[in-house]
Amino acid sequence: MIYPDNIEEFFGSKDRNEAWIAEAIWGHRLERQPFSALMLEFLGMAEGMFRQGKLLSNTRPGENPEYVANRSLQLRNLLFNNPRMEEILRNAQGSDEESWITWLRVMKESASVGEHLTPDFSYLRTRFDTFAELVSVVRLLRRIAVDPGSERSWTTQFVFPIGPAALYEAILEKGEGFERTRRVFTRTGELAYLMLSRASEPLRARIRESLAPSFDPNTSRNKLVLRLISSPEPDRGDSKGGTYLPYKKHPAFDRMAEDVAAILSLNLPDQDAFQYLQPLLGLHLYLYGIETANYMQGDSQLPALICEILAPKSDLVRKAAVGSYLQNDSLGAMAVRKFIDKTAFADTELHKTLADKALDDLAKKEYLAEHLARTCAFKKDRIEAPDPTTLTQKFYSFADRLYRNGTADGLTALATGCGLASKRGTNRYRYAPTDDLLRALVLANVNAPLEESAFLSHIHKRYRIVIGPTEAKNEVLNYLFDETDFKKNRDRLAQHLIGMGLAHRMSDACTYVINPMDSRE
To answer: How many Cβ atoms are within 10 Å of 323's Cβ, its own excluded?
Structure first.
């Protein structure tokens, strides 16, 4: 996985980064974002590539696949920067003309559409028979707002992607115009797209065929959105790119693609599949993160995920789940140190220079700083040190801090956002999958009634998820393994699945996991 022939160097400048360490291991970049933004950013890139005729075309690490995202400024103003619409309708007391005149004046004064559009929304009078009809459509679309009630600016609020016109990038107001922001769309969704673009061609073809209809501009739902903008297509920003995924191949790529293809193959109406894809994208990004870190330690397989199905009180399963999470959480910091040791400090010329008695500490420190700048894109002014030993110690701490504030925090956000990890009932994170994640796993992995033990064996082999006693016996430390506790854990899973309509208990007491959305059932 992590060997020279499978990696290509980043194509862009590293000047904006304080160092290039986590980025070299996991990509540029995996950071915390609102979990809802993951799916929206992924779909935004997919839709942009679809318009170019390149949806899920194969990409390489050394390339910079660029796309143009929608900005949809008129739509956003109507939905999220239009607080007086309902009030104006009420105050007009049935006078349609008065409603239009007042509202158009207010929008002309308050709407923010940048330099390429005008705050004149009078085109809507030809699209709607009455002002009340316009209000009704705006009200309807506001109901599908993502993360309703959040205090984000109107430029970083979104709606459920019912069509390509409802997909747009995050921006911020700047002066009289707007600028792109990476504080909401942090590139993590683009990393998910790049992972799928490097899956095997048969999987990419399946996903492409199933995903493309979601980007059809001629659906009734998309046409509803288009009624609110003046042009045949949404306004768009500049080309965007710069996201980097280091590996040509990785076990995580096909694993993610298989689940995405499975969900899309259910042929759910409209964009209903997206609610199940979202937790799976988060799960697979998290698995990619810990699998890559584990590989850096010399272990080529996924680490185990010991999961508690929420219990009424603490038992050995919970303690094992906490320990499992903490163990996997520590892998990234060890991977960062391993990368530094191999990339920077294994250099024989460096050791020779630092051992040269003819050089004083200042000269050695300067040489080491230059070496770290070359190998890790380190900004030399970030650390003050009198000698190479102090600089080395401070650099390890500096790199660890960068990782914990960036990629590590992003992985935590993915684990909690997708429903894999939780603090419910405790003050520490542990693996405790939510019903939404369990449902997505069933829908992606079950296409015929599957006996419970076979299901548990399957998700263990595929994701290293440990729930029942059979799998736990070989994965859990002896002092944390209790067969009775893990049997209870397995039984709680069965109860959850039965309650969600995802399992049946037969007369012989056997439980079968089912996928009620699969037409082959």
So the answer is: 17
**Alpha-helical regions (H) of 125-250:** 131-142, 188-197, 201-211, 220-226
Give the chain's radius of gyration (CA, Å).
26
Angle made by CA atoms 194, 196, 201, in degrees to the nearest 5: 120
User: Angle at the Cα of 492 (from 39 to 494), degrees rounded to 5?
Assistant: 75
The DSSP bridge partners found for residue 505 are 511
Strands 158-159 and 465-466 turn out to be unpaired
Closest CA to 443 of 333, 305, 283, 290: 283
Question: Which stretch of 135-144, 191-200, 264-273 has the lowest confidence by average pLDDT?
Answer: 264-273
The answer, yes or no, to whether residue 199 has pLDDT greater than 80, is yes
Q: Where are the alpha helices (DSSP H) in 6-72?
A: 22-26, 35-51
Q: How far apart are CA 31 and CA 41, in angstroms?
A: 13
For 104, other C-beta atoms within 10 Å of its C-beta total 18
> With contact defined as beta carbons under 8 Å apart, do 28 and 172 qualify?
no
Of the CA atoms within 13 Å of residue 97, those in its CB half-sphere come to 0
Q: Looking at residue 521, what is its pLDDT?
A: 45
- Asked if the model's pLDDT at residue 468 lies above 90, the reply is yes
Nearest to 25 by CA among 58, 1, 45: 1
Q: What are phi and psi for residue 469, nearest 5 degrees?
A: -70, -35
pLDDT in tens, 60-101: 999 999 999 999 999 999 999 999 999 999 999 989 999 999
**Is the distance from CB of 192 to CB of 285 less than 8 angstroms?**
yes
Question: H helices within 150-273, ranges in order?
Answer: 188-197, 201-211, 220-226, 251-264
- Residue 165 CA to residue 173 CA, distance in Å, equals 21
For the chain, give the mean pLDDT: 96
Query: pLDDT, tens digit, for every residue of 411-429?
Result: 999 999 999 999 998 899 9
